[in-house]
Design brief:
Layout: H1 2-19, H2 24-28
């Protein structure tokens, strides 16, 4: 059973890693896809800059958080993750 679980995990990992690959040609031409951040630094030259202009000095003050995350885990009785 444990061997079957291990095989399933490795199979899933292989599928995800294969689908997450970005071709070298796409990375080299990343400027053509400004809406896609293809590498850690944005493009092959590591500019770390986006030419998108949906957010600018005139509307930045209107931004509001879209997703809220909590770093506390609530269990039975309201206990947090630290056990307190």
């Amino acid at each position: 059973m444990r061997r079957l679980q291990s095989l399933a995990i490795w199979s899933l990992a292989a599928c995800f890693s294969a689908s997450a690959q970005v071709s070298f040609d796409r990375i080299r031409a990343a400027e053509r896809e400004p809406g896609n951040w293809l590498t850690y630094s944005g493009n092959y030259s590591a500019h770390r800059h986006s030419p998108l202009d949906q957010i600018h000095a005139g509307n930045v003050q209107k931004l509001k958080p879209g997703v809220g995350l909590s770093n506390q885990r609530r269990g039975a009785g309201g206990d947090d993750a630290a056990g307190g």
